[in-house]
């Protein structure tokens, strides 16, 4: 497993040398863009709009646009010095909190933490401490020159670190348009909706959920590679806009209702 970061985790005076590994992977199917006429891959060039000519990496500098077409240019050396000043290769756990206190909207990316050669004992201690306390650690880390807020928690037998958004990175719910008043709910509709939720409630099994689009796309690619005739599936009908909530809820209940168990009948033996 590829190491994306090396450093240490500390809580109090306990220091744990660790390595960071990406816990998830993007399985999107990447499609190239080709020229329709000759199927040659399309390339992209960096062009200066002012000079109308192609530029190389050496001709490019980074800048911050503080107002329309007004920039503060930052030298590569200035950025490198700033990065080095803030590149602390340690994760200090600042606080311990309960996982349920953090809304999922804050979570960003998950990493596995593995102990370095000398860190196994301290790693096991932190893992056991988090398990026994029922808490997770809140920490800060710098990854690729960006400071991240993060949490450290137990996942199965490993410690994982999940980067989370800073509060000012989460947009205000007040900016979301057309949110209905909570008092508009009809009790009968609510009771029926709760019955539907109850019928659809099950234990979470991640293995039952698959990316159907990716599977179908790969099948299409394999069929075309093999020269097979590709058939187009009929579109599934989309539900109409819900105008009668009770009718829609009742139909949903009927559709998800489990069949009643068949009654077992006992036969009486005839006397010979």
Automatic annotation (TrEMBL):
Residues 258-272 have a biased composition (Basic residues). Pfam families: Ku. InterPro entries: DNA_bd_Ku70/Ku80 (IPR006164), Prok_Ku (IPR009187), SPOC-like_C_dom_sf (IPR016194). Keywords: DNA damage, DNA recombination, DNA repair, DNA-binding. Residues 52-181 form the Ku domain. Residues 250-272 are annotated as: Disordered. With LigD forms a non-homologous end joining (NHEJ) DNA repair enzyme, which repairs dsDNA breaks with reduced fidelity. Binds linear dsDNA with 5'- and 3'- overhangs but not closed circular dsDNA nor ssDNA. Recruits and stimulates the ligase activity of LigD. Belongs to the prokaryotic Ku family. Homodimer. Interacts with LigD. This is Non-homologous end joining protein Ku. It comes from Solibacillus faecavium. The lineage of its organism: Bacteria, Bacillati, Bacillota, Bacilli, Bacillales. The gene is ku.
